[in-house]
Amino acid sequence: MHDPNFLVYLFYIFWYSVQNLIWCYFGRKKEFPIYLTMSFYVIAEAVK
Questions:
Q1: pTM
Q2: Residue 2 in contact with residue 10, Cβ under 8 Å?
Q3: Which of 5, 13, 32, 48 is the most exposed, having the fewest neighbouring CB atoms within 10 Å of its CB?
Q4: Overall number of domains in the chain
Q5: Could you give the CA distance from residue 16 to residue 38 in angstroms, rounded to a whole number?
Q6: CA 13 to chain centre
Q7: pLDDT in tens, 31-44
Q8: How confident is the model at residue 20 (pLDDT cuts 50, 70, 90)?
Q9: Of 48, 39, 46, 44, residue with least CA distance to 9
Q10: How far apart are CA 10 and CA 37, in angstroms?
């Protein structure tokens, strides 16, 4: 399972977590669904 796609998947989890913390810190909750949708799309692509 440690193929390039899996590494990309881990990177996007990390990046999404960082962005989520940033948006929460600045109180911009309205942007949250965008990143959530993008993260689900990336995960779906990674596990195909």
A1: 0.41
A2: no
A3: 48
A4: 1
A5: 9
A6: 5
A7: 556 667 777 777 77
A8: confident
A9: 46
A10: 16
